[in-house]
Amino acid sequence: MATASAAPLASLLLASILLLLGAPALSSGGGCGGEAHPGYSSGGEGTCTVDAGAAALTPATRERGGAGGGRRIIDITHAYVADLPTFATGEVAGPVVRLKQSMAEGSEYNLSELKMECHTGTHVDAPGHINQANFAAGLDVDTLDLDVLNADVCRIFFSPARAKLSSERVPPGPVARSCSVAAAHLLAYLTCELATMAAPPLLVMLLAVAVTLAPQDLVAGGGAAHPAYTNAAGAGDDSCGLASAGAEVALEEHGGGRIIDITHAYRPDLPAPGRDGLGPVTRLKESMANGSVNNVSELKMVVHSGTHVDAPGHMVQEHFVAGLDVDKLDLDVLNGPALLIDVPRDTNITAQAMESLNIPRGVRRVLFRTLNTDRKLMWTKEIDTSFVGFTEDGAQWLLDNTDIKLVGVDYISFAAFDHLISAHLVFLNNPAIIPIEGLKLDHVKAGIYMLHCLPLRLIGCDGSPIRCILIK
């Protein structure tokens, strides 16, 4: 266990690392060329060319973030537009979204509805698409293996092609554990942030040493770094926050626990206005049981249902007219290290509550778990107006006093019912803030994770269903 006498050395290491952050990332291995794929050669910094003479790849219109050698995310998903091709000869997909409620017509918000065949544009086939036995057995898209669908960020970073290292050769310790350490500690957070920025391995390992040398009360749960956390009685070193909220809601883990799914399944009894819940989300348009050559489903739902993201144009008409839709959301903000914290259970997320959480500067993504999870409100059809959310002053405090750009909450509105419009406007007036609503945070330990959230590319839409996962 590190002692307090090591704190100055940890501080010195951290200061040195922060000074070095301006240095460019290593250019070898992680880009193109090299032994990773001999069919590609480097055509200059940041470009890839095919040896056969094809033109240089120019994915600039799909790149998010990463200016100045930082993180680079390339979107390889087609936008869902009306002229997408379908399997039917001579046909196109047609309109994918329609505006059900419009601020231009007097509504307090813009609200769109999504309707499209599930095999439209960039999509995935479930085993039951052309195999009736698999379809009857329930092998749907929700049973697909997230461990197969998502690469391990740390493993890629330390691949032989990237830095002549491998995750197996890195000794166990803070580097391997930093993305899942259950503590609100800035050093551990920065370790994750640097790894996703493709920073030089030396910086990441130096920061890992700083984490090791830091006083233990800063690295474990609780302590001065984050007084809102306390270790559960009898729990292990990685336990922080409240005890699990009921055994009947299972923690959805994949890949041996490496991936945690924090997205609610889109089911008919999701909470929605009225007493009947959301209602049917999919219908089977073509059925093998009825003689079709395949099973083809159609998806239809209001985009602000279940786990979803709000675009700036949801409640700000100027942003809606300016085209600030879900396709303009910053993937660099939606993907990266995130802090999962527990909000005191006797309060909305007010300015006072925000201040008490003591979230360090530099943290960009925070998931707020509240009494909503304990009460299992996302498992109740009818909307409960007593849900916990941000008040107007709480939202403004976050904006004025933190570096947070992504706000995740555990009910279908991040704004408390009595502050539904005003708190929304605080965030949505600032397009840099991305609110994610309806997260499934049952049984997940508080702490730092790699967060990956991807909305559908719905052009002109005020929101979108979103799949969010945590990677340890």
UniProtKB/TrEMBL annotation:
<keyword id="KW-0732">Signal</keyword>
<keyword id="KW-0272">Extracellular matrix</keyword>
<dbReference type="GO" id="GO:0019441">
    <property type="term" value="P:L-tryptophan catabolic process to kynurenine"/>
</dbReference>
<dbReference type="InterPro" id="IPR007325">
    <property type="entry name" value="KFase/CYL"/>
</dbReference>
<protein>
    <recommendedName>
        <fullName>Cyclase</fullName>
    </recommendedName>
</protein>
<dbReference type="GO" id="GO:0004061">
    <property type="term" value="F:arylformamidase activity"/>
</dbReference>
<dbReference type="InterPro" id="IPR037175">
    <property type="entry name" value="KFase_sf"/>
</dbReference>
<dbReference type="Pfam" id="PF04199">
    <property type="entry name" value="Cyclase"/>
</dbReference>
<comment type="similarity">
    <text>Belongs to the Cyclase 1 superfamily.</text>
</comment>
<keyword id="KW-0964">Secreted</keyword>
<feature type="signal peptide">
    <location>
        <begin position="1"/>
        <end position="29"/>
    </location>
</feature>
